[in-house]
Amino acid sequence: MTTAPTGYRPNSQGHLIPNESIKPLDLLRDDTVRRIVEQARDTQHQLLRFKTSAMDDINSFVDIAAEQYSTKLGGKRGNLTLTSFDGRYRINVQVSDLLRFDERLHIAKQLIDECIHEWTTDSNANIKALIEHAFQTDKEGNINKGRVFGLMRLRIDDAKWIKAMEALKDSIQIASSSEYMRVYERIGQTDQYKQIALDIAGL
Question: Which of the residue ranges 4-13, 31-40, 153-162 has the most confident prediction, judged by mean pLDDT?
Answer without folding.
Answer: 31-40
